[in-house]
């Protein structure tokens, strides 16, 4: 049995396996399938200051080894979360981390301030990388200026652990990572979805109502691993790696590339209990390879 | 849960009836609910949502009626007796069942593979003492499935687009709709058909529930991909549906 604890900023995780925002609801959706208390953390659904209806249906297209989505941050708003959802989830013995998004810097601040009041929410994941909203979202995450401005503003109002979720839809992800590190981010998480598109050739129409959407699943994994490795060589803050993790082997790959912890996303839809299998698999891997602590895996790729 | 294939009948070229049994006893499942089937092939990523066609309690069997439309359903049609399939069940809400003593006239309208949930619903209603009527629509005679099973439960009316069986035309053109007064309609099938049925029901002030088939990813309300626009805004078909009263929908007709 290896030591599975890892630290992300001030946050101590019981193990490095967490579930990704938008793929795990508020955790409650999965309690029939697993003991969610075993997770290192749960990143709950993207939350904005205001209620959002999201994009029109259709919002999803299956792809080889993955899917496109265009949900568009449907949620009932940060105050609704605080009043109605937070009381339902706060007692779980895992870290509930809120993914915070916005259309303007002011709306990011407003959302972060509401979440900062909630004692049992130890961290937020600042989403500057959602590809499915017309305003804000990824627009902030694809330039150093935009990313720096929003992280600086939120850092001032959010004293707890601040994780910034990066977009892969950039020329050089390390520039953005360095910028958010310099503005005070405690950690970065990557990658959000890759911008993609699908066409129904019989109808000669786009499959998604928004035409383009975010690609996720095992098909993006090699790109994500590459970006984690590049980012690991560029910043000192911890990296939470994600992108197509479907089993313990994928998770270990992300850690060897430089991740301190990982998130499982789309594969929760295929196997709702996959994250438990990943925790057990990482532990067995550590034992088999003589690692006393899972933290030793971070960046342990040999060249 | 893991379930073993006990039978896989090819009903005709494009349809098969898959029967599956788990080792443990099947949980309670209500008419209108669905399951998510994991498909093991190289090209199918997501699970496939399939409505419950029938539950044979005596054999602890789940029946799934499958129309072969792509690689996922093609793989399911090729499953052999003894193969193990991973299935999440039961999912979604269910059709509203009237009070048993009310003696309502109930019409169950299915189009194409949308007839699937009507068999389990009809069986459930018959056991409660109702005499359900069925109106089944298809392209032609060979596409009308499980007729004998439906006839064992109640009166069956049929329309085919080419007139090869029953009345020629769409379900909403069947003469029974003018001859007999129904208190409630349940329907499942292609969206244009359900919208036409909803229009007929609304104009005749008949209570009507539809079962939607929006494309899904998770099936448990986590991903928010399968939403339908309703009087309460966007809500998940997988958890708040798949059955909706037409008054809750925003269909324009």
Main features:
heterodimer; A: 303 residues; alpha/beta; TIM Barrel; eight-stranded parallel β-barrel; four-stranded antiparallel β-sheet; 8 helices; 16 strands; 21% strand; B: 253 residues; Elongation Factor Tu (Ef-tu), domain 3; Rossmann fold; 2 domains; seven-stranded antiparallel β-sheet; seven-stranded mixed β-sheet; 5 helices; globular
Q: Which architecture of chain A per CATH?
A: Alpha-Beta Barrel
User: Helical percent range of chain A?
Assistant: 25-40%
CATH topology of the largest domain in chain B: Rossmann fold
Uncertain spans of chain B: none
Q: β content of chain A, as a range? A: 15-25%
The CATH topology name of chain A reads TIM Barrel
- Name given to the CATH homologous superfamily of the largest domain in chain B: Nucleotide-binding domain of ferredoxin-NADP reductase (FNR) module
Number of helices, counting only DSSP H or I runs of 4 residues or more of chain B? 5
CATH superfamily of chain A: Aldolase class I
Rg measurement of chain B, Å: 18 Å
* Rg estimate of chain A, integer Å: 18 Å
> Which sequence of SSEs, written as H and E, runs from N to C of chain A?
EEEEEEHEHEHHEHEEEEEHEHEH
Q: Which overall shape of chain B is indicated by the principal axes computed on the Cα atoms?
A: globular
Order of helices and strands of chain B: EEEEEEHEEHEHEEHEHEEEE
Number of domains of chain A: 1
Strand fraction of chain B: 25-35%
* Biggest interface between chains: A-B, 32 and 25 residues
